[in-house]
Amino acid sequence: MPNKKKNPSPKKPELHPRNKHRGRYDLKLLQQGNPELSQYIIINKYGDQSINFFNAEAVRELNKALLLHYYDLSFWEIPEGYLCPPIPGRADYIHHIADLLSKSNSGKIPEGAKIKCLDIGTGANCVYPIIGNGEYGWNFIGSDIDPLALKSANKIIESNQSLTGKIFCRLQNDPGQYFSGIIEKDELFDISICNPPFHKSEADMKAGTLRKLSNLKKKKITKVNLNFGGKSGELWTEGGEKQFVVNMINQSADYAKSCCWFSTLLSKESNLRIVDQTLKNVKIQASETIPVGQGNKKSRIVAWTFLNRKERNNWAENRWNKEA
Fold first, then answer.
1. Would you say residue 270 lies in a domain?
2. What is the pTM of this model?
3. What is the pLDDT along the chain (324 residues), one digit of tens a residue?
4. 315 inside domain
């Protein structure tokens, strides 16, 4: 009689219904597009094929395989040490933002090159523009303070015919600015997105990582292992996530009519209070807090607009639904 597994691998909870990564990874299929993934395949405690998510090389090859297979890429590489974000969570942000835009468009998600998205801190991986363009055909401007990160992102764009002419990168020369120096005169964006650095310093990042690893492995861990990589500006910034987002909200007021909706991820629930107060201070017209999560990780998207309902409806009519 064949051995029965004790329990099946649990389904990843809470991902968006349109997220392509809701079920278990089909590692056999993913290896076809990225054979390098094969060397990192292990058998987990449920008897299923998996990878070691504490291994940075394994995570990078898995992400590469996902991007090649699901988002019509032929090339994706990032420099060593740069952030290699988990694809399912990044896809969730894009899908929730699509739903947000649909609320100003009679429930229909606006698609195609008419939609222009600003990705603040696009990084070496260029993941948000890849997913947004692949899922909805949106065009993107990706900004970053790191020239090497943008060099990597541009190489990804130029190496994939599906991305060329649809995603463009701009260097932010002033790390304290988010929109100034990036948004050009009379330029309009339908949505801005951002995944801000969480920690306030490298020491804070290392301490937090050790706590997380110790909790996950149920034993004291003393050596930092950044399985998803990441550098200053990607993982930590002065004042941490809270100050970063507060500054972004304040600066967005100067571009109130340049962008239909602004948005950012906000990881720490305790930061919501000051974020909500800052939104009131800059006199927004509407805001939404959208819960997102994967596994035990809980987070949220905070979105705000300076346009009233009539202005948002007019925006949709003139930009999204008007025939060229």
1. yes
2. 0.85
3. 444 444 545 444 479 999 999 988 999 999 999 999 999 998 888 888 888 878 889 989 999 999 999 999 999 999 988 888 889 999 999 999 999 999 999 999 999 999 999 999 999 999 999 999 999 999 999 999 999 999 999 999 999 999 999 999 999 999 999 999 999 999 999 999 999 975 454 555 444 444 444 444 455 544 545 554 544 444 445 768 889 999 999 999 999 999 999 999 998 899 999 999 999 999 999 999 999 986 667 899 999 999 999 999 999 999 999 875
4. yes
* Domain CATH code at residue 265: 3.40.50.150
Bridging pattern class, strands 49-51 and 41-43:
antiparallel
| Total count of domains within the chain | 1
Give a yes or no: residue 6 inside a domain.
Answer: no
| Residues counted in the chain | 324
- Domain membership flag for residue 147: yes
Domain that holds residue 157: 79-320
